[in-house]
Amino acid sequence: xxxxxxxxxxxxxxxxxxxxxxxxxxxxxxxxxxxxxxxxxxxxxxxxxxxxxxxxxxxxxxxxxxxxxxxxxxxxxxxxxxxxxxxxxxxxxxxxxxxxxxxxxxxxxxxxxxxxxxxxxxxxxxxxxxxxxxxxxxxxxxxxxxxxxxxxxxxxxxxxxxxxxxxxxxxxxxxxxxxxxxxxxxxxxxxxxxxxxxxxxx
Length: 202
What we know:
Layout: H1 7-23, H2 29-36, H3 41-53, E1 57-59, E2 67-69, E3 76-86, E4 91-92, E5 99-104, E6 114-119, E7 133-138, E8 147-152, E9 155-164, E10 167-171, E11 180-183, E12 188-197
Helix pairs in contact: 1-3, 2-3
């Protein structure tokens, strides 16, 4: 029977599962160490031992990629679609839950809190198309270069974040659109883009 994991153990387990899904091979200890900024391989091994003791993996010591995910690890999560966000000119956010959809948890390296439906084509060169659902991790800060959901005067948009001389610059990923420049104290970061869900056509 699987035991409850700590937050870090859960993140490492999900990273292993996500790496396996995307690369068709489990990560090495060095890759896990680098991904989580751990100081040494010993720290990674300690987490792997804990995951093994709690029934989530089998750790084969001495092998380069000696991590085996145990049956039943793959799981789904329910994410609410809470409205829409502009990929173009900002539009007012609609913050009512449209519906909840279930997706594989391993789709995301970082666990999202909700989904927003994209309207517009300003982020197409980042692979975000009109009517896509973007997965958002709710947080109030972000680093330059991250794609964020930003609010200004009760309007919300999705763009790449940059900072220039005290101003927030929201960059589109489509040459047909100009960057949006706003004083930093007039912008609220609602969350960071962590993945994409593209619904199948009916």
